[in-house]
Amino acid sequence: MTYKERFNDWMEKMPKEDGLRPQLEALSEDENLMAEAFSKDMVFGTSGLRGITGVGSNRMNYYTVARATRGIAAYIKEAGSEAKERGVIIAHDPRYFSEEFSQLTACIMARAGIRVYTFEGMRPTPELAFLIRELKAVSGINITASHNPPEYNGYKVYWEDGCQVSADVAKGMMESIEKLDYFLDSNVDFSDYRKLIDSGKIVILGDKEDTLYLDKVKSISIHSGNELDLSIPIVYTPLNGAGAIPFAKVMADRGFMNFHIVPKQRDPDPDFTTVGYPNPEDPKAFALGEKLAESIGAELIMATDPDADRFAIEVRSKEGDYVPLNGNQTGYLLVNYILEGHRSAGTLPKKGAMVKSIVTSSLSEEIAASYGVKMFESLIGFKNICGRIPFLEKNGYTYLFGYEQSVGYAACPDIRDKDGISAGMLVAEAAAYYRKQGKSLFEILSELGERYGYYAESEPNFVLQGISGAARIERMMESVRSSLPKDRLFPEQLRQSDSKGESSKAPSLSSIAGIEVARVIDYTEGYEDIPPSNVVRFFLENGSWFGIRPSGTEPKIKFYFYSKADSFEKAAEVNNRIKEAVLSIIQEVD
Questions:
Q1: Would you say 281 and 312 are in contact if contact means Cβ atoms under 8 Å apart?
Q2: What pLDDT, on a 0 to 100 scale, did the predictor assign at position 70?
Q3: Fewer Cβ close by (within 10 Å): the C or N end of the chain?
Q4: Are residues 320 and 426 in the same domain?
Q5: Phi-psi region of 501 (alpha: psi -120 to 50; beta: other; left: phi over 0)
Q6: Which residues does the annotation mark as catalytic?
Q7: For 277-286, how does the pLDDT look when each residue is reduced to its tens digit (9 = 90+)?
Q8: Which of 559, 523, 561 is nearest to 542 (CA)?
Q9: Which residue among 205, 228, 254 closes a domain?
Q10: What residues in the chain have per-residue pLDDT under 70?
Q11: In 3D, which of 256, 271, 331, 333 has the Cα closest to residue 306?
């Protein structure tokens, strides 16, 4: 279907009395908005469905949510009566329509004869992921757009292993969804939500399940009691999301006596008024936290995003100012603290394993190796990172930690998604542990540079909205691939000359900023045991490397640059030079 055909289909079938009808009719007056809203049907990205709320097949609304839910319900029913009885767990974040979408999802599942578990209020995504295996549910769904701006919402889907759905499961679900019409046999009414609860078809979870999750988080602690300086002043912001209550409970249970939550960002706010873009990766998200931290002399500021799966920090430097750490730097601290702690406690396993994504810094691999621990790689996303856990356990490895550079950390094998609550507890514990020894996290990070070499990293991206933006991103990736030095390309089956005369006028990317490219990995057809993905990595002769990929959930093309030198200043200089050269080449693609 073309976008106009989709629009006309909705115009014909949407009930006249529907509250979305005026929005739909208004699109007839704006061809561009119509094209954006109906350019496609929403499909699973890196972590389910995600998009702007509003009318249209490419928007998050009652009809797209209902269609997705009906398709997933059919997929579960095909798995048999046991799967229906095991049921699905549904949660939501504080965004506009999140509660309504979650109730709609619960009603559709319950009417389909599938047992439903849900909550009266918002819950962190990692709690949902944990409870799937704990309650032996067959699936889980969280209505959340994670760290995206206020106009977005999303639909994260999990399977029985507690991970976000794998490519195979997502494919089966999408095939089931695509068979369905948005309107025929569609019921977007959730007025019987309370009746379904009273009848026992929807079960409300609460304090008991919260305690199970928080006890699991606390079980991964390494040091405690007198080993820690529990008076360390710490500031935390949940960015008006789901993290406030569980994080405060964990910190209180652990005995932290000087823990402060940013007041204006404690309670739910779907507009995220104080920050706008609730992404803890963005230093601007720490503005209010810094003011509170300065007033109490905090050593550490922590933040989670609205569904509390992403986590970022700022640490106080020797000069007393607050320095934002990127996801890699926080990862270095956690990798080192976990391994150092286990070794000092005598609990470091003989076959320890960690996992990082293919676009995450290789410094953590060096740190792990120094402790005799193997660092595995995976595709981007925690369905891939935590999806490694069964393989590791089957092969005799003990999973210790997984992370990726986009401020996601998974420190517990029973919580198979990134978890800002457990990451935050471990970082606070590490800060208290080192403070007891007279050191700060800032100093520990400097020590890691002295020991392993100084890394500079940068992660720019181009935001290219809409249909034209998506097309330009595709052309950018095509241009990169047409310019690859074939004699340095892995895997070997891709090292073929262009059989169809594909070599474009673009220059060969055999050197960048005067530095020779040693090898290239194109993941189009996979690499070793890593499945296919739209990612290309360049490894340079001087030890630097960079990766390029389109985002799976946002209108972006992303870049990842890493350089190593004997000082941070030298590493940063090389990194900037490589970054500027690559971005200038990519920007020429119109």
A1: yes
A2: 96
A3: C
A4: yes
A5: left
A6: 146
A7: 999 999 999 9
A8: 561
A9: 205
A10: 46-47, 185-186, 491-507
A11: 271
